[in-house]
């Protein structure tokens, strides 16, 4: 009995069909029997007929391989649950499809990035980028996003922005404005533009217009793809897998997307759109499970202050950093290690109000969460100072501003130091202490000039 005949018989009996059931209306039961016994080789038309009756792909009859097997490999690549050697072997397998090798390289790059080895991650992402042909430019998105993340984490947002804008233009030239790719590129571009002191709100808005459910949808799409692939509904399975890939990318960049929400929130707050800022910051908190969610609490406190609700603002600040007591002596620089809440990951986003928060995010991606905690505390001190001023407690406001300055002397960058020094000088002037105000400005100028920023 031939291999084809064996497979036809196994599938037929497994589905409870007789030889007559399989044969009709084009063939006879005797013909089916001769094929199953290996006495006759079925024609291509007969194979197509049998495949249709058995509800399988012709390839499954001729090779014995289920057409969904290839999709199962891609599902494993998306879920990232296989052990490290599995991805390493696939990435170096010369017989594998280049797109699959690229996907394996992306997984390896993400893992190295999580481990704090940005240089190693760059090598994986670059190999992934080169494996994907220009005609499938949208499939390069995870690799380019990884390269941009690494460049930003290594302190070069300018190069990251260069990569992202070049890739954005490549997608448009190729006629491939894939929504998931556009979302990823613009979310990351917004953070880089903010790092560079540029207007990041347009890029953030472009990204957020395309934001979907992210991590919440991954398991549903993957389960759907598996079910459809197993039942040989391959076009539908492929569509579900594409949707799963977009959700996985969005999930991986959840904190960056949360950062885009916060950038737009700051723009809305500046424009007086308090409701819009509130909605964006709530979305940022929902997106992030790391320090970015705590950063959003500080932003929300500022919004509630603008809404005339100081009690809620103080409660939010307390939730973001319980270590700060508004009435305490706050001159000494705080210990940042206590700021990362238990159960949160070292994976943060960006704050549109200052470069220092962005620097904290860059260090969080490589595992150095302390800086983000320090920056969050400094920002919380600043909002506490504003609330104290509103309440007429200028001495408390001074203590909070001095505490924020003390932190930024160690973390930078210069813009934050300069702004806080100006704020404190203005406060001291209002307190009729001009000599102290001049001293603060002089000290601030010295600190800004000597700071690397």
Automatic annotation (TrEMBL):
Signal peptide: none annotated. It comes from the Bacteria. Residues 8-61 form the HTH cro/C1-type domain. CDD domains: HTH_XRE. InterPro entries: Cro/C1-type_HTH (IPR001387), Lambda_DNA-bd_dom_sf (IPR010982), TPR-like_helical_dom_sf (IPR011990). Residues 339-375 are annotated as: Disordered. This is Helix-turn-helix transcriptional regulator. It comes from Dactylosporangium maewongense.
